[in-house]
Write a structure and sequence with these properties.
Elements lengths: L1 E3 L2 E3 L13 H10 L1 H4 L3 H19 L5 H21 L11 H13 L7
Antiparallel strand pairs: 1-2
Helix pairs in contact: 1-3, 1-4, 3-5, 4-5
């Protein structure tokens, strides 16, 4: 549960899976709240790195926000590919694939320490 604009927000565990960081759902929420949804990749990541580190430091101080964001994006893309593969008549495209690829590109180019 988080406070958003002074209001409690309970998010679901749609993106949680055994073996994956619990942060996946939190990152999904932070990148996809209404104000962020239509923003460019760089602005969404700036928002993520402004909000995520203080939250994860409370429970997992050694966790790297950049690494958690990369894990989230990779698992999101793999999940979409897996879902689409079940429907043989569909192409391997989905809403957000281009934006996700842009975010991954930005993350992979970030020097160490630029995300704390």
């Amino acid at each position: 549960m988080l406070l958003v604009d002074g209001h409690p927000y309970v998010y679901d565990w749609e993106y949680a899976e055994e073996g994956l960081p619990l942060s996946n759902d939190l990152i999904h929420f932070l990148l996809n709240t209404t104000p962020m949804r239509r923003q460019p990749a760089s602005k969404r990541l700036n928002h993520l790195f402004a909000v995520l580190p203080p939250i994860i430091r409370k429970t997992t101080p050694q966790a790297d926000p950049k690494d958690l964001a990369i894990i989230y994006l990779l698992t999101l893309h793999l999940r979409q590919i897996e879902r689409n593969a079940l429907h043989t008549n569909q192409s391997l495209t989905w809403d957000g694939e281009v934006e996700g690829a842009k975010m991954l590109d930005i993350l992979l180019r970030l020097p160490a320490g630029d995300h704390q």
